[in-house]
Design a protein that fits this description.
By secondary structure, this protein is mainly alpha-helical. Helix content is 70%, strand content 2%. Helix 3 packs parallel to helix 6. The longest helix has 39 residues. The chain is elongated, with a radius of gyration of 24 Å. It holds the Pfam family DUF599.
Length: 274
């Protein structure tokens, strides 16, 4: 079997494993949010927004500063993504065959030079190299766009969170809907920030693909292993049910239904955030 066939086998399997893991994570976030970091953070962000809006005159500065910190984080990632995109674009237009030991373009008989990349298994053609650079470029551009959307929602939330909703309406339902909308806006900003960070994560296996399909395949599963411990909670102290035997009750409830879990980002009666 030729070496280039390794790209056709290992690279799709590595990408498929990454996509399958994130689809499984999405299913867990939707159905069992209290088992995931994303779900727990969404619930606590909603509670934080409600607490900030209860006393907007006292907590207004704190809320805006907290959102500004999130805007700065998203701005940093967006700036990094567009800078790396520009770098990859330059490499794509000037690489040629030199990265795989093809020598200089101006020589009639180029002298092959041995490099780490030139000795890897897999496709070593100029088209293959361009495809690898293009894949990384797509990840960085996607990270840039997602972080820009995150900045957009955080900017909206920084204004909405100081709205004196209690003075505008005496209806409790209207007040709750206003707080829910602001909390949903903050959560959307956080979701886009998380997606932008995932785009950076996806670029790591694609970067290792430059050195061959085997490093890319191994990096994909190593990254999945690391993300599993970063995405899921292993303690019953983040969000619990009003009962002393929290973990036991949650496990028993899961056998019958998913009522023990909170709807993502929404507070539920009978639950508290610890």
């Amino acid at each position: 079997m030729e070496k280039k066939f390794l790209d056709l086998i290992l690279v799709p399997f590595g990408l498929l494993a990454m996509v399958a893991y994130h689809l499984w994570l999405l299913q867990k976030v939707v159905r069992q949010p209290t088992k995931t970091i994303i779900g727990v953070n969404a619930i606590n962000r909603r509670l934080w927004v409600q607490a900030m809006m209860e006393e907007s005159t006292k907590n207004g500065v704190l809320a805006v500063q907290s959102l500004r910190n999130n805007i700065m984080a998203s701005t940093l990632l967006a700036s990094t993504a567009i800078m790396l995109s520009s770098l990859i674009a330059v490499l794509m237009t000037s690489s040629g065959g030199s990265y795989y030991g093809g020598g200089s373009h101006g020589q009639d008989n180029p002298t092959p030079t041995k490099t780490v990349i030139s000795q890897v298994f897999g496709d070593r053609s100029e088209f293959g190299l361009s495809l690898k650079f293009f894949s990384i470029l797509v990840c960085f551009l996607l990270a840039f766009l997602l972080n820009v959307q995150s900045i957009r929602y955080y900017s909206h939330a920084s204004i909405l969170i100081n709205v004196p909703f209690k003075k505008l309406s005496t209806s409790l339902r209207h007040q709750m809907l206003t707080a829910e909308y602001v909390a949903a806006t903050v959560n959307r900003g956080s979701y886009f920030w998380s997606l932008g960070l995932r785009a950076f994560y996806f670029s790591f296996p694609l970067f290792m693909w430059i050195f061959g399909p085997i490093p890319m395949f191994v990096t994909s599963f190593v990254l999945i292993f690391i993300l599993y411990f970063l995405d899921f909670t292993f303690e019953c102290g983040w969000t619990g049910i009003l009962d002393d035997n929290c973990c036991d009750d949650v496990e028993n409830d899961e056998e019958h239904s998913h009522d023990g879990d909170l709807e993502i980002g929404r507070a539920n009666q009978g639950t508290i955030s610890i």
